Structure formats: structure tokens, C-alpha cells
Amino acid sequence: MRLEIESLDAEGRGVARNSEGKVVFVEGALAGERVEAQVLRRKPKFDLARVVEVLRESSARRAPRCRYFGVCGGCATQHIDARTQLAAKQRWLEDCLARIGGVRPGTILPIVYGQEWGYRHRARLTVRRVAKKNGVLVGFHERRSSYVADMLSCEVLPQRVSRLIPRLRELVETLSIRQRLPQIELAVGDATDVLVFRHLEPLEQADEQKLRAFAQETRVSIWLQPAGPDSAHPFHPLPAPALDYALPEFGIRLGFRPTDFTQVNHGVNRILVSRAVRLLEPRPGERIGDLFCGLGNFSLPIARVGASVLGLEASPSLVERARGNAAANGLQQLAQFAVADLYAEGAGEFLARGPFDKLLIDPPRDGALEAVKALPNGWPRRIVYVACDPATLARDAAVLVHAKGFRLAAAGVANMFPHTAHVESIALFERP
């Protein structure tokens, strides 16, 4: 089937219409291209296809850097040049705001971006022993599949970590519990790299010796996780090296556990935090709420400039970590933290802790609907909203603008996940 590709969708696929006018999403196709495509799946309203041959090539097309691109599901857009990737994400944000929220930002912020390669400082690698391969596979899932990609390297992981993949395959193959070790979680700090081995059965003494030897040879820190995330604990070396990252502009260092939520891209995170603080304009004497505060990624920089911050978070362990980070950075007087369910209907816990002059909101993909619906008329004056899903940002923006009287002063994209369709964004809301 020959198709003319009209545009890119939110997942980096080409969008076309077949001879009957039906929408076709084409993996591997770019806007402006003419392609020969094979249909993979038919749906009532659209078809899913993939490129078989490019008949007319876009100037934005480039050769993927990773040899596993197209098989591994970790990346979707390595075949598109960086500028086109960024422009597509910006268009998708603006489209969501207009189509879902019925709003348009007064200013489009410059795109926040950083390194294209080696940026990923958090990852969950699936481990599976495959008899047909006569060994263990360690990596990301294949595209559209539960199978593990047969990969020996990864271009979006730091090179020193990428080089560990073949060695991890060899190591796990020698362990007695290789059939009961489903994943290895990676967490990169400024001074150490941590590998968390999730094991469903106890390790034998010989397994422990092999893990210690691997840690010593590769200079990584190994943790073990026998149950849920809270069960993760250091194994070797002991005492465990500090796992943390710095926000140098604010003179802050944030410690975390390898199973904690942190941003995967430390470089872009530093720029994003700086932008958020500039947009929020915190001042000494102001009381600011940081909703979904995590371990203090935004709270502590806000406190550093002199404002009083209350961070609210549903996870008691993250609240504990945020309090520890505040104390370690000498900010415990200005930065306070409390456990609160921000998804509860009416957001009563949040309202009871107000009023706030300004808010920083950084929710998960579900957004912050209950919190924004609960906002009273009197406060806050300004909101900076950091979003990991443009659709939920747009939904919440509709409430803030059409029901709560804010204006969307500015919005823009942060390219936290290069070569994927994931769109991180930041928006500024102000009362007129």
C-alpha cells in the first residue's frame, strides 16, 4: 500500500489516509514522505502500519544511531533529526492545549533540551533466560511485544552502563536463581552507579560471591530487592556510597534511594528546575506550596531563594527523604514536608494547609485535577505546572482558565526523553 504521509502523531508515527479516506498510522514514516507500507493491525477507525520502503525521503530523516532501533521498544524516533523531534513535541503540546483545554499560551517558551545520547540515568532492564538463545537476555522490551530485545548495548544509557549489558547477561547466566531474577533497576548518581537486582528467591552463597566480584570489577554498587521497592537494600560495597545528584545553581545536593522516583535526565532536570523557579518568582516572606513534591527537587531550590515552602506528597518514604534533604542542605527552617493525598475528592488535606501565595505542581501522568478544582478564589496568585502528559495538563488548564479565572501566560516543552514520543512540559498560570 502506497501512502502520502501528512504529519507526525504524538507517538512519532507518520499519519496518512488510504484510498478510502481511513487514517493510517505508519511506524517509521515522516511527514512529507511517500512510502510503501504494510498494515499490521486494522481497527474500526484507523489502521496501524509500518514502512516497507521509503519512496520519497524527508530531509528530516537520518540513520538511527542504535543498531537495535526498530526492534527495541525503548526509542521510537531515532530516525528523525533532533530539530524535527523537538518541533513535533512542541506542536503536540500546543494542539493538546487548544483541542482539549480550549486555551492558548500567551508566550511559547524556548524548548528545554540537553544531550541526545547517554542521558538516561534511570532505567528498568528486564531479565529473561531464553532457551532458544541458550542464555540470558538483559534489556528493554521489543517494540509491541513482551519479549526482551536481544541487545548488547544502548545508546541512551551512559556509555559505562551500556558496556555492562553483555557482562550482566553473562553474570546472571551463572547464578542459581537466573530463572527467578526478573529485572535489574539502574539508578545513576553523581558519584556512583547502582544496580538493584530483583530476586524472587534467596541467593545462594556462591551467588553472593559472584555479585560481590562483579561489583568490585565494574565499580558499581549492587543492591538487592527481595520483595517490593521498600525492601531494596545495599549489598556491596558496604557502607553503600552516597547516591545523589546536584543542582549547582542553587548549591543543593539531593540524596535518593535507587527505587525512588527521580527524573531520568539529570541535565535537562537542572535546566527545568531553573526555569520553574524563574517563572514562579519566589520571594522571601512568601508561602509557596509544592504539590507532588517527591524528594524536594523543586522545593529546596525555592527555599534557597528565601521563600517558605510546604511540600505535599502521598508517599511517606519520599516525604522522609525530602525532610532529610532539607536538613542536609540547611533548609529545614524554610522547607517543610507533609504526607497528603492530593487525589482525594475535594483535596481537603491540601486546602486545610493553605493559603499559599504561589504553587508549584509536578504531578504524575494522571495530573492534578482534584487539586486545581479545589482552588479557592483568593489564592494562589501564580502557578507553575510541570507536566509529563500534555493531555492531562490541557485538561487541568481548562479548569484553571475557564473555571478559576487564571490565564495561561506561557507554556513550553522540556525534552526529558530524546528519541521517544514522551513530552514533558511546563506552564505558567497567573491571575489577571
Defining key terms:
OB fold (Dihydrolipoamide Acetyltransferase, E2P), 10 helices, alpha/beta, 3 domains, six-stranded mixed sheet, 432 residues, eight-stranded mixed sheet, 22 strands, Rossmann fold
Show the helix and strand layout.
Elements: E1 2-4, E2 7-8, E3 14-17, E4 23-27, E5 34-42, E6 46-56, H1 82-101, E7 107-108, E8 122-130, E9 135-139, H2 159-162, H3 165-173, E10 183-188, E11 193-198, H4 205-218, E12 221-225, E13 233-236, E14 244-247, E15 252-255, H5 266-280, E16 287-291, H6 299-304, E17 308-313, H7 316-328, E18 335-339, H8 348-352, E19 358-361, H9 369-374, E20 382-387, H10 390-403, E21 407-414, E22 424-430
Parallel strand pairs: 4-6, 7-21, 11-12, 16-17, 16-19, 17-18, 19-20
Antiparallel strand pairs: 1-5, 2-3, 3-4, 5-6, 8-9, 8-10, 10-11, 12-13, 14-15, 20-22, 21-22
Helix pairs in contact: 1-10
Task: Walk me through this protein's architecture.
It is a single chain. With 432 residues, the chain is α/β, with parallel strands linked by helices. The chain folds into 3 domains: 2-61, OB fold (Dihydrolipoamide Acetyltransferase, E2P), CATH 2.40.50; 87-115 and 263-430, Vaccinia Virus protein VP39 (Rossmann fold, 3-Layer(aba) Sandwich); 122-188 and 192-236, OB fold (Dihydrolipoamide Acetyltransferase, E2P) (Beta Barrel), CATH 2.40.50. The chain contains 10 helices and 22 strands. It has helices spanning 82-101, 159-162, 165-173, 205-218, 266-280, 299-304, 316-328, 348-352, 369-374, 390-403, and strands at residues 2-4, 7-8, 14-17, 23-27, 34-42, 46-56, 107-108, 122-130, 135-139, 183-188, 193-198, 221-225, 233-236, 244-247, 252-255, 287-291, 308-313, 335-339, 358-361, 382-387, 407-414, 424-430. The strands form 4 sheets. It has an 8-stranded mixed sheet with strand order 7-21-22-20-19-16-17-18, sandwiched between helices. Strand 5 and strand 6 (46-56) form a beta hairpin. The radius of gyration is 23 Å and the shape is flat. The termini are far apart. The model has no long low-confidence stretch (mean pLDDT 96).
